[in-house]
Design a protein that fits this description.
With about 130 residues, the chain is an alpha+beta fold. The chain has a 4-stranded mixed sheet, covered by helices on one side. A hairpin with a 7-residue loop joins strand 1 and strand 2. The protein is elongated and about 80 Å long.
Length: about 130
């Protein structure tokens, strides 16, 4: 774009090479034109078996006012979903106990920093359950 703009008003031998050289040496030009390099993906080690490592998250609220507690087995990608009207720590623990009674107690639980998962009661539940 810069070369075509210059060509409308001036010309000299090796105009293209001079403009490319100027732009490549210009710190401001390189900062603006350099694409953001994405961070490399960090691959996590695959769990050794099903239900060793799970991830939990709340989805919602839905139009009916309920939330969904989504539990994902990181080994098989199996989903377990619990509909919940109340999403406090106690009801979350009760729902997880029901799921754990069917599939077993996982070794590791990954959750976001939602208030239900960041509470002392939930932290005690994890330690006492496993």
């Amino acid at each position: 774009m810069m070369k075509s703009h210059l060509r409308t008003s001036v010309w000299w031998p090796k105009l293209d090479a001079d403009v490319e050289s100027f732009v490549s040496a210009c710190r401001g030009c390189t900062l603006v034109s350099a694409p953001n390099v994405p961070e490399p993906l960090i691959r996590k080690e695959l769990p050794t078996g099903p239900w060793n490592y799970i991830a939990i998250e709340y989805l919602g609220p839905l139009p009916e006012g309920q939330h969904l507690l989504v539990i994902v087995d990181c080994y098989s990608r199996y989903l377990e979903v619990c509909g919940m009207m109340c999403i406090d720590t106690k009801t979350t623990i009760d729902s997880l106990r029901k799921v754990f009674s069917r599939y077993g107690i996982p070794t590791l639980i990954k959750a976001d920093n939602g208030p239900q998962f960041a509470s002392k009661e939930f932290n005690f539940f994890e330690v006492s359950t496993i």
